[in-house]
Amino acid sequence: MRLPAFWPLPRTWQGWLTTALFAFMYGPILVLTVYSFNDSIRYTSVWQGFSLKWYESLFQDTRIFRALQDTLFVAIVAVAISSVLGTLMAIGLAKYYFPGKGVYRGVSYLPLIIPDISIAVATLVFLASMAIPLSIWTIIAAHMVFCLAYIAVVVSSRLGSLDPNLEEAALDLGATPAQALIQVLLPQLMPAIVAGCLLAFVLSVDDLLISSFTAGGGANPLPLEIFSRIRNGVKPDMNALSVLLILASGMIAALGEYLRYKGSTTMAEQFKGDDVCAILLSCVGMNWVNDLPVRYPDLQDPGANRRFR
Amino acid sequence: MTASPTSKRWHFSPLELSQQFKRLLGALTLLAPSGLWLILFLVLPTLLILDISLVPGLRPGESGDGYGLGNYSRVFNPFDAAFDSVYLQVIGRSLYYATGTTLACLLMGFPVAYWLALMAPRRWRNFLVVAFILPLWTSSLLRAYAWISILRPSGLLNSFIGWLSSGLPGVQLPEQAWLYSSAAVLIGLTYNFLPYMVLILYASLEKLDISLLEAAADLGATPRQTFWQVTVPQTLPGIAAGCLLVFITSMGDFVVPTLLGGASSMTISRLIYNQFLGITRNWGLGSALSMVMILAVSMMIALLLKYGDRDSVKEA
Fold it and tell me: Which end of chain A is more exposed for a tag (fewer CB within 10 A), N or C?
């Protein structure tokens, strides 16, 4: 019996595997969500009825709220400063040639490559040797390093696809370099800056290692609080917290996608077909994959793929 | 005195000079703040780590034993009196986890990326790719935590196995202690890094020229031959990049081995953590291990770049 064309079941083993791996990716999140509503006394894997009691106990937990405040403060301040510095850096790297530029660029990529633990350890040793007391501001300083790097990478990948003539035209028409930068270049870069900021924000909120090496006693960001609670086992109110945080990050991701979509419709001519992919790659700091050799140009015929189902 | 060509090059009119100055000022405004920050909080600290990795026995409050390669030889040199094979074991285990994760991600990720890039309905393609990598936006801590509730002794997996064994007569599946085992670490790492692999392979497969596949089929190649002789060679740069990224990040991961692995699954990043925030507190040794990791990662990146270059040379 032939299945109708609109039948949503996959018809190849690759399709089935993809379905299975979608379940693999979302299964644990689903399990967490279901258990956060479980009306259990202790944490058991047996379903005992629907209840919101873990959310109630979470909302009465002032430690969590203080930790959340610290996290948000660190992320917002670090991202706000880095967004300016990172964008300036990306523009500067695209504009100027100077001796040592390769080294500069290489150093700016380092935070994307070196494992977190190495950066964390180095920062701790540096702060200790300079006798700088650990506080919330040292966390911000350390977070700025990787926030800068990620924002600069995302903005750089966008700069490469811009039309340089627009800025030159502005300069020819009498704009000062600062005017050209603010009124011509920045609006074109905005989607990338926002995408980079969202990415840096998520990374900063998620960071455990660098925070735990630079926090000292003064601040206690949320990942540290969660880590110290769950390393000795399962705590049901952490399920509730996880669900709320996953929802929040899902919304941030959706916002990022939406902003990018909006940006792409108003500036359609600047976006290429595989742009989603390019920006997503730059979001994980992997935009250099796109610079790897391409041997054959994209085929434009949209029907071409279908023959090889 | 007649000006030589070289000295003439540096002779500017006042107007040129002021333009040069403005250019320099522009470059400095754009690049100096970030550069300063990176030097202060990345370059200097890393050099400092290199420096104190050369001081054996450096602990907070102790000055150590003077410069020497003691920390490195303690890890690598079996003839050293202070040599402890446990460090090499830890490095070996980290490499084992990274290799296993990379292989698992590649074997599962490639078919998924292939399906998304070439077989999925076109209008759903972008949505499906975004949906697949969406879990990357959530906290890695919480994703590891989600696996704890599945893998722990009275968790979902063991309940499921118990249900299977009781439901199907003749089938006796053993309930296992999944959590705090190497298997748990491998599952957790694969779960973390599969989206990266899929994303990179997808980017690579999307650029694949379909007409070459058609040509291969027209010339009588079986689908298997087409896959191995056309698709795979063309996506090799993407495969290399994906494998390398997953390998590096899973080798340096701290959260998953700590939460899902027990005391027996010590990895290099956990060891470094312990040298600074744990009980051992040997800053010199921790710095040496950290330098080893930075060097290994840099070498792998250099290899990829070299490999990519050779590839483009072949193309030209």
Answer: N
